[in-house]
Amino acid sequence: GNVCAFISNNRVSRAVNGSFGALNSTLDNLGTFVRSIPQQVDFIIATSDVPVSRANSSLQDIGPILGGRIISEVGDEAYGALGSAMSLLEVTDQVERELRAVNQSGQHLQQLQGELTQNLSRLQERINRTLQSCGPSCSQVSVSGLAPEADFSMVPDVSSQLELLSNLTSANLSAVLQQANETLNKTPTRVKEQAEKVVADARRQLAEVRRKIGGVRSEIPVLDTLGNVTTTLDDVGRQASDYEPQVAAYDGYRWIVGICLCCLVLLIVLCYLLGLALGALGLKPPVPPNERGCLSNSGGDFFMAGVGFSFLFSWLLMLLVLVTFLLGGNAYTLVCQPWYSRQLLQFLETSDLTASFNLSKMLGLPGGTVTLSGVYNNCQHDKSLWDTLQLGQAVPLDELLDISQYTGEITAAFDQLNVSLDPVTFLSPSQKQLLRDVGASGLQPNFTGALQQLERNVTQRDLPVLAEQLEALANATDNVTRKQELQEEASDLRQINGQIGSRFLPETQALKRSIQSLQETIPQVPARINDTLRQIEDAQTFLDSRAAEIIKNESRAFLNTLLGYFESYVTWAKSKLTGEVGRCGPVAKTMDVAVTVACSYVVDSLNGFWFSLGWCTMFLLPGLILAVRLAKFYRRMKIVDIYDSDREALEMSPSATLFKIPRVETRQ
Prior knowledge:
Blueprint: H1 2-46, H2 49-60, H3 62-134, H4 159-170, H5 173-185, H6 187-194, H7 196-214, H8 222-282, H9 294-340, H10 344-350, H11 359-362, H12 372-380, H13 385-388, H14 397-400, H15 404-415, H16 429-441, H17 448-455, H18 463-476, H19 480-521, H20 525-579, H21 585-618, H22 620-634, H23 644-652, H24 654-658
Helix pairs in contact: 1-8, 1-21, 2-7, 2-20, 3-4, 3-5, 3-6, 3-19, 3-20, 4-16, 7-15, 8-9, 8-22, 9-21, 9-22, 12-21, 15-20, 16-20, 18-19
């Protein structure tokens, strides 16, 4: 018991000294929690700037956003038709260029062929005269077939096709299509211009929405009273700091008194232990009590010293046990045990001593239904401040965050929005008819004969071979004049052959390429014209019949996006205010920690101290009785007690007769 008293006494001091730190930590945590609640509410309210900013940004960019949506809806049809028409015009331009090239090359080749025919005819006459004058020696050389072989007049005339394509080009279809494309691309600018008044009205309503949401904080009364709570917590912390030195000093005195009493009990225990040890070691049963040894006598003296100390200080022990029992026992019975059984808060709520205490009134909440036990239970389940303080009864959150009035004004403003596109005309009827005429003509000249002629040689005879034959004759003849004539005629043949290579071949190759290109391209033109006209008709019909509906639908979608910002924010704000703000689980844990420090450390240690001292005090009485009894057998006696058995033995001994006292005897 004395060991437990020593330990409990030290634990009480450690608990008291540590309780101030735990109290300050608890108060700091509570203060931090209470101060964070208005900050959380302010953050939620300030977050309303996000949807307002997004809405303002969307309104500012209504042209690109709404106009872009409109274009994206009509773009598949309109831009598809425009792309097909522009591609068709590129094909027709290419066909027109190739047809012109065919026409020019054919005419040029026919002109060159005429010149070649004249030159060859004159040269043939000259060669014949020279050969005739030469005689039989030149008869092996013949100039027959010295004429063009390919007939370039077989190149067809494409003037009619060129006329159709020229009419198509002069109609300037590309400019019309470009104008239609620019009209569609200007849709965002037109939307922005037509929506200026609607945007201004909507932005004014957004400012009203921001003002209404900002007023929610002033409608939550508990936020104003939380400042008083933090002030009270700060005052409690300062008062605890002021009393801490005094409490520490008084606890030091208590610790000294406790140590002294424990040492006193230890002294009594040591006296008894020494009495037991010395008495048992020095006791010799055959020795008379008046002749007992010093060691045994010292053991008896220690017993009597312990008895004396017990008589002198037992009242002090009992008084201290009583006082600490009253403090610790009542604290545990009246505070700790009711707290653990959840009855303390209910008692405080129903007791007459706390009848004037009204938590709802303190927090400025009407109704008076908020209780300490309810707050603690909700905090144990980490519920929000809204549920814990039942703010739903005092704060009409749905009404405060009801912005339907302003969203209705914005909706009404958008209902007045009348966006219309500039008229878009892809092609005029006359231009469409020109395309139909081109498609109906087929644009397919007969190039079969021309290609056959292009595969032939330009001349029937091989001019370089004939020139070599003439040069051979010139070398064989001795007639200077005839030799010179033959050489000149061979030179003319080579010159004509060179002209054929430099003038005919490029033209024939270019003509062949143009014809091949036309043969690949022209068959696709009628089908592409028909497909393009169909797409243009469909796109024109789509714009004329669906444009207004698309604009209305996209305007409604744009409006829904704007309102969706606020609907999402209101839903989020409600969920945060009612389910997240002020989750008081840390408060319950902090209170549990404080109660644990007070009860499990201070009160339990104090109860352990008085129980241990009471334990020791209870055993003082039996210890005292046993010590007195044992001291009689250990201490040295001055007078020996002789009992009857001792007397008879003494009388029967021989030495006893020597000291026999005469007594009066009766005679018979």
